[in-house]
Amino acid sequence: MALIVQKFGGTSVGDAERIRAVADHVARTRAAGNQVVVVVSAMGKFTDDLIRLADDVSPTRPPRELDMLLTAGERISMALVSMALEARGVRSASFTGSQAGIITDTGHTQAKILEMRPERIREALDNGLVPVVAGFQGISTEKDITTLGRGGSDVTAVALAAALKADSCEIYTDVTGVFSADPRVVSKARRLPKVSFDEMMEMAATGGRVLMLRSVEFARRHGVPLQVRSSFTWEPGTWIVEEDPTMEEAIVTAVTDDTSEAKITIDGVPDRPGIAAQLFRTLADAGVNVDMIVQNTGTNGLTAISFTVALTDLEKASTICGEVKEAIGATSVTTDDAIGRVSIIGAGMKSSPGVTALMFETLSSNGINIEMISTSSIRISCLVRAEKVADAVRFLHTAFGLDAA
Amino acid sequence: MALIVQKFGGTSVGDAERIRAVADHVARTRAAGNQVVVVVSAMGKFTDDLIRLADDVSPTRPPRELDMLLTAGERISMALVSMALEARGVRSASFTGSQAGIITDTGHTQAKILEMRPERIREALDNGLVPVVAGFQGISTEKDITTLGRGGSDVTAVALAAALKADSCEIYTDVTGVFSADPRVVSKARRLPKVSFDEMMEMAATGGRVLMLRSVEFARRHGVPLQVRSSFTWEPGTWIVEEDPTMEEAIVTAVTDDTSEAKITIDGVPDRPGIAAQLFRTLADAGVNVDMIVQNTGTNGLTAISFTVALTDLEKASTICGEVKEAIGATSVTTDDAIGRVSIIGAGMKSSPGVTALMFETLSSNGINIEMISTSSIRISCLVRAEKVADAVRFLHTAFGLDAA
Q1: Which chain A residues touch B if contact means CB-CB below 8 Å?
Q2: ipTM value > 0.90
């Protein structure tokens, strides 16, 4: 008898009909002889409705109260899913994050899990029940309700799977799996039956929208096999698993795109040790995440530093850079929000020379200029004009032989 | 510095605008030098929406899950009220029933409070915060979320006021207080500045819709002065207090009406000891509450037993009576759902003879036939045809000098 954690996102429990379909699927999984733990998000756009109400009563959003407010969403969906299971003769009980023993730090709206104490979930399983657990939420060491931030319900599912030593964790969503590129951009994108954790992490970090980096990291660290599947077609989806060293790896598995970043360039920076450190420390202290970084040393003892930040952080970052510019005596700060990143990812890249060359050739021969480059052992990313991103993804998808037949 | 518990019902927190108005009022109460604990119900018709969703996913309503579902409502309103207070510079924190230490039995959907442990509420008050507590909910001895049944938010407010030794408990609603009769029935009904607990309990038990019997009983037992007020006009409302023996009491304070009951008559019952006991024990065991009871002994050794039950219990009660009829050899069971009850209530009635006579004369001289009578020391109730109830209330209101000038 396998133990499976099944997580259903907002669209999967969007209305009563979807909830009944979810209950049918859980009942089938149970009837096939498995133990099941269900994790749910809030219904559809309910969380957005709550945020709108909050904005309507308060210009600020006190974080503790925002968490208290938003966790109402999962409470509703979990109770409804549990009721729908009972209606199918599947004994069930719902549990809040607190009742499920998800202990977090006190970082309201983006709390980190400190400890899992899922005693009540284990007990429910032992008693033959299907526990339905609220995703996205926990209880802090101060006994206040917390939320886990974006993608938090996936984190709940993976953390529960790890703590319960589940055989797998299935993430149900409105797409049928992980694709070789965004199907809205590349019509010939293929669903991947299997992706390694390393690849999935690179994809999540470079614009893959199916899973958040955090839950993939968590799953990998605890060795939880993940599967991404559709709650609309219920067909088998994509497994995210440890690399299998006995199998030959595809050189390139997927092409991702990301237009949610902007570029900042500081020109005329004195080429002294510690200057870059000062800049990026100041940005980090202000909570700005910096992504790609490139530094070019000129011949006159001055360098240019370029880096990317999330579009949402652009204003804050550019203000900080202006201040740093004065302090270090740089020439100018320029920002560019019309850039995009295209990346190729593949575990086989490590042992295959020539991948970088083919990527650059493909882009240049199609008239796409590369503005910045960054690489890891299994990824190459190029910064290009935003309006060229979709073309770049399509050309690379074809060039690396990923197009579906 | 007084400590005041202010409870706001569903219409009082019905939308963002109402919530802002509530926050304004709490801020004013605070600025006047009082400590305030706020208790809130779910917003407007939100609970009804949730019940509709539940019915849509499950033909039954598993009680534990129904409680989990419904408590989301107060969680939303309490977080929003707390945010609105913070927006006015009033430091605040919201607390679930569980966090407020409201410990109940395991009777889901109508749990009884076993113990109050409001340590976190006290601590919040000591720290200068306005605690906002979810009404209607608690946590059971099994650590499951429970709800307190109809009128449960009032019970939460009164129980908190008692446990915190508050100076008063203000129940805010969409009416301006307790009236000498239902203003929709009697246009000349007057708002009562003061009502005794005894009178209020009789009013609640005989159709007064402002407060539920349970919260009044609770307030009386713990000596919590209650005030019913409007959250729309904010004008002073009605105080419900211990009787003041030094004041002369009005003979009749209010006239109430109730058309939510039905009458059952069992005819030809052998006049033997224990027969009535057997009937009412069977009904009680089935959870049917019996209200007025009349037994007439005939001359032939047979009696007729009539009693009233809630309309919602009529079907169940009449089935039981059919079975009991066979068992005891009675002649027939008849039911009548077109009856209504009109009651006069007044603490001064105890020492005033002639009240009963005036009530009967008023009804009979206006052609209203009395079908059953029941009395307590401060109340007289008459069962009449349902269609005569409104007239009966108006005639009695005038006859006992209650009409506003």
Answers
A1: 16, 19-20, 23, 50, 53-54, 56-62, 64-66, 68-69, 71-73, 75-76, 78-84, 86-87, 92-94, 96, 99, 120, 143, 145
A2: no
